[in-house]
Amino acid sequence: MPNQTDRRWPKFSDELRAALHKLSEHPKLLHWFAENLDEAFSEKVSPLPLGFVFPDSKPTAISAKIKPPTWARPNSVLCAHRIREGAQWQARRDVQALASGAWRTFTHVADKEMPLKAFQEACRTHKFVLCVEGGGLDPCPKVFDALLNGAIPIVRASAASRALAELPVAFVESWSEDAVTPDLLDDWSAEFTPKFDAPGGYDAIQKKTSLDHWWGKILRQCM
């Protein structure tokens, strides 16, 4: 939205895009929060993260403690994502190739798709997690899972990713070979590790991944 860049479906027509632009400027519209926002096309439209996807719509337990703490972990990167047939998964194929090649000295690549619990446990043994989009632009719930297990997500910047700007997330402009390097990992570690390990830091992150936090932002914007 507003262009429809998900490769599983056709792009929106010029007529539909024009209608969305017109709607965004309607005087009766207070504000519009959109998931998978693919263009910052109006000041009245803001991205909303996808957040968590719970099995059977039932929230899973989230630990109040993370061990080991983020600061105690090596600057290693976890690459563990689902890849299927089709163009929508190309970015993940490209990143997996980089993780197994140019990034192999600092990246662990999962040899098979991980169940959620195994992925969360793996997050706790790394300081960084590659969170690559798959069709849609927003790589949640992986981003939120990584954060709540003490790891720093690495995400490609987009209009949608602006929703994550207040969280300790490392952004790259593209999934290129020089997007992730040991020097960048050092810089990101210095910038974001204190966000987890400072007094009250993890609690603040946990709050910002909650539905109440985002519903509160919506209400404040529309008052």
Mean pLDDT: 91
Helix percentage: 25-40%
The end-to-end distance, rounded to whole angstroms, is 24 Å
The total of helices stands at 7
Order of helices and strands: HEEEHEHEHEEHHH
Radius of gyration: 18 Å
> Oligomeric status of the shown chains?
single chain
Report low-confidence residues grouped into runs of 5 or more.
Answer: none
**Main sheet characteristics:** 5 strands, parallel
Number of strands: 7
Strand arrangement within the widest β-sheet reads 4-3-5-6-7
Percentage beta strand: 5-15%
Which descriptor suits the 3D outline? globular
Q: In terms of structural class, how would the helical and strand content be classed?
A: alpha/beta
Task: Report what the structure shows.
- The chain has 7 helices and 7 strands; from the N terminus they run H-E-E-E-H-E-H-E-H-E-E-H-H-H.
- By secondary structure, it is α/β, with parallel strands linked by helices.
- The protein has a 5-stranded parallel sheet with strand order 4-3-5-6-7. Strands 1-2 form a two-stranded parallel ribbon.
- Helix 5 packs across helix 6.
- The longest helix is centred in the C-terminal third of the chain and has 16 residues.
- 30% of the residues are buried.
Name some characteristics of this structure.
two-stranded parallel sheet; 32% helix; five-stranded parallel beta sheet; single chain; 223 residues; alpha/beta
